Amino acid sequence: MFKVDENTFLRKYRDSDDVELSKELADEEVTRYTTIPHPYTLQHAKTFISENKNLVGLFAIVQEDKVVGAIEYDQQKGCFAHKAIIGYWLKKGLWNQGIMKNALATLIKIVEKQNETAEIKIKRLEAHVCNGNEFSGRTLMRNGFEKEGILVKDFCKNNVYYDTTIYGKILE
Ligand SMILES: CC(C)(COP(=O)(O)OP(=O)(O)OC[C@H]1O[C@@H](n2cnc3c(N)ncnc32)[C@H](O)[C@@H]1OP(=O)(O)O)[C@@H](O)C(=O)NCCC(=O)NCCS
Q1: Domain extent for 39
Q2: Which residues are the signal sequence here (predicted)?
Q3: Run of H or E residues at 31
């Protein structure tokens, strides 16, 4: 368990999080710019948790032990193994309180800590943000990520194409 703020923690997913997860991810405003499907069902949540709960870099964001969001770093393989892709979401009722800014800062500390002993150290954190999702870009910039470029028609959901901005942060 990692502390984000007085009320908010990162922990691993549990099977019993399925109902809460399906409830929070039913909100299309939360999932619009993500690969998370809509509509999001209880079965989606059950399958996601059972297939992903042991991933090293994936954390549920919890308040009073209930899932209110998630954040992950996904370390890549081969010639990209020094790189991790960042993803996150938070329930809408908690937006604009600095929670994700602090959760991302916590995640970066976790990566730096695991780098101390890892055989392959993560040197680059990367996030792809759909144009229009300005809050996500600001969350990244508040944590020292820089805008690096734009990928045209990089993301497609419900037949709508979005350009994405790549944000990167280099770890020493
Ligand atoms: C992106 C997201 C995680 C941000 O979480 P958050 O906890 O609200 O972010 P923070 O409170 O830490 O704020 C980060 C920045 O966004 C701004 N922001 C967030 N919500 C805002 C709102 N409703 N109105 C105005 N500004 C807002 C904050 O002011 C802050 O910017 P600043 O530091 O320059 O003032 C959240 O909006 C979300 O879950 N979105 C849906 C999922 C998603 O898009 N994930 C990312 C995919 S790349």
Answers
A1: 2-170
A2: none
A3: helix 28-31
This prediction has a pTM of: 0.97
From the CB of 155, is ligand 1 less than 6 Å away? Answer: no
- pLDDT reported for residue 47: 98
Strand order in the sheet with 124-130: 2-5, 8-11, 58-63, 66-75, 83-90, 124-130, 160-170, 146-157
Bridge partners for 124 per DSSP:
83, 170
CA of 130, closest atom in ligand 1: 48
Report the 10 Å Cβ neighbour count for 40: 20
How high is the pLDDT of residue 166?
Answer: 98
97: domain CATH number is: 3.40.630.30
> How many domains would you assign to the chain?
1
Does the CB atom of residue 34 touch ligand 1 within 6 A?
yes
Mutate to test the pocket of ligand 1, among 61, 95, 106, 166 (most ligand atoms within 8 A of CB): 95
In the predicted structure, residue 172 carries a pLDDT above the cut 90: no
What is the mean predicted confidence (pLDDT) over 1-24?
98
| Residue 99 CB less than 6 A away from ligand 1 | yes
